[in-house]
Every structure is written in structure tokens, then in C-alpha cells.
Amino acid sequence: MSRLSQLSRSVEGRVALVTGAASGMGRATAHLFADEGAHVAVTDLERSGVDAVVDEIEAAGGSAGGWTLDVADAERVGRVVSEIVDRFGGLDIVINNAGISRFAPIDSETYEDDWAISLEVLLTAQTRVIRAALPHLRRSDAARIVNIASTEGWGATKFASPYTAAKHGVIGLTKSLAVELGREGITVNCICPGPIRTGMTAEIPDEHKEIFAKRRTAIGRYGEPEEVAHGTLNFCLPASRYMTGAVLPVDGGLLIKNA
Ligand code: NAI
Asked: Which of 112, 118, 204, 259 is 20 to 30 A from 102, comparing alpha carbons?
């Protein structure tokens, strides 16, 4: 059958940079984009984690390169982005995914440090990666930025104020840059994952996960990293060119559930 629609739902041949790609949602996103034919720049803190994901992609017949990258290291961010562009010939997609979460009651002794590192890694670093990528995104005919926020970007959980403040900031940053870059055809969207089974939630015992998910989500279970990656991919399709400034919960219905 010939096609009646015009816009492409393929990211084949596109170059996608994923931060925090050695674990959890970043890894699932790297896998999915590689499965869809993109060249994936896998970046994370440790060489071993980065190499493992690159190996997984290459073993499956996909295309990937690996870089160690601490998103809090401004100078390294610029260098890695240049190397990615040298390796793959451009950059079309940026997925700001790297993250940490700290237990941080407002009166704790380590609060100032928890605040500083949370804002740095979760929010400031996203601006840094976008700034480094922007000259290259401007050369793409389907430039896409996806920032990973959280349901903590809408509501709040106690003892997590640095994380919550940073994630609220990610939503504001996304809206602001969507407005700023829209005329250039660069879309900027964000995803708010709910409770997802990743490294970040690994220490929560399974029975607590189940109780929480049954009580708080409509779907009634924790989400899997790949379920979030598909939301991210949808924002990155060439066909998604009129979607910008959107805040998409991928949370099993947590945000809409009253009872
Ligand atoms: P994860 O812990 O499995 O993966 C996070 C990755 O980020 C790790 O590989 C880690 O090494 C990397 N990372 C940490 N600091 C970094 C830095 N300075 N530079 C570069 N990489 C760094 O966790 P998960 O859950 O996959 O996290 C991905 C994103 O999703 C984060 O932004 C997190 O805040 C967000 N999120 C997670 C939720 C969950 O339930 N797991 C819910 C809502 C949002």
C-alpha cells in the first residue's frame, strides 16, 4: 500500500546523544534509538558502563559510540559534543537524562551540598549540554531536545526539595527554550516519568514498590525503562515537528489519580 501521510516516523540515520545512558531509562533509550536505526552517542560517568551499552548495541547490529561524560564538567561537555559530531557527522537529537536523587530534609547538615549537586546535575547540566549542542542542532532538519523531568516536576515528595526544585526547573527550562527555539524548527519537550524500575529505585524493596504503585498509579504497577523510552522517541520523530514545549507524564496515571 502506498502512504497517504507525509511526515516521517523514522529516526534512522539520525545522531542522538543520551546522557546517563549506562543505566535505567538512559540505557533503554539508547537501545530503542539504536533499534530504530539512529547512531547513538552513549555517555555516562564510568567507562565500563558506557562500554557495556555500546557493546550491547553493536552486538544487536546497531550503531553506537561511547564517551565518559560527567554532565557537571562544563569543559568536558563541549569536548564530547565536538567528538560526537566528528564521529557521526552531525547531531540531531539531545536527550538530557542523567540524574541523581538525594534524601535531603531541609534541616539536614548536608543540605547545602545536596542542593548544589542536585541543581547542578539535574538542571544546570541540561542547559550546558543544550548550549554545546545548539550550533550542531541548527544544522539538522529535525532537531529535537528532550529533557527528562519527573512527576516531582509537578508535585512533591517530602525530604526531596533539591530534587523537586530541580525537576520543576526542568519543566520551566523546557517551556522557555521551546519558545526561544521554535522559529528555528528545534523542538524542546520534556517527559515526567513516574515510578520506574531503574538504578535510582533499585533500593526500594519490591513489596514497597508494589504497595506504592497499587495505591498511587492507575495502571497499578511500577513502569519499565523502555516504556519511558518510547515516549522520548515519539518526541524525536521528524513527524513530531509541531509538538514543542510539551510536558508528557509517563507515569502509569499517577498524576491524574485522585483515589
Ligand atoms: P539510574 O540511576 O538507573 O540512571 C541514571 C544515570 O545517570 C546513571 O547511569 C548515572 O551514572 C548517570 N549519572 C548520574 N550523575 C551523572 C553525571 N553527573 N553525569 C553523567 N551521568 C550521570 O536512574 P534513572 O531512573 O534511569 O534516571 C534517569 C532520569 O530519570 C533521571 O533524570 C531521573 O531523575 C529521572 N527520573 C527517574 C524516576 C524513577 O522512578 N526511576 C522517576 C522520575 C524521573
From this structure: 259
Query: Could you tell me which residues come within 8 angstroms of residue 112 by beta carbon, excluding any fewer than 6 positions away?
Result: none
pTM of the model: 0.99
CB atoms near residue 11 (< 10 Å): 25
Instruction: State which amino acid sits at residue 202.
Output: A
CATH number of 15-250: 3.40.50.720
pLDDT digits 0-9 by tens, 127-150: 999 999 999 999 999 999 999 999
Mean pLDDT of 161-165: 98
For the chain, domain boundaries: 15-250
Work out the average pLDDT over 228-250: 98
Distance 123 CA to ligand 1 centre (A): 12
Q: Is the CB of 132 under 6 A from ligand 1?
A: no
- Number of neighbouring beta carbons within 10 Å of residue 233: 23
pLDDT of residue 166: 98
Q: Does ligand 1 come within 6 angstroms of the Cβ of 162?
A: no
Helix (H, G, I), strand (E, B) or coil at 190: strand
Q: For 25, how many CA atoms within 13 A lie in the half-sphere containing its CB? A: 31
**What residue has cell string 516519568?**
193
Phi, psi of 67 (to 5 degrees): -140, 135
| CA distance readout (Å), 178 to 73, 188, 189, 245 | 25, 5, 7, 5
* Gap from CA of 8 to ligand 1 centroid (Å): 30
Tell me how far the alpha carbon of residue 157 lies from the centroid of ligand 1, in angstroms: 17
70 lines ligand 1 (CB under 6 A): yes
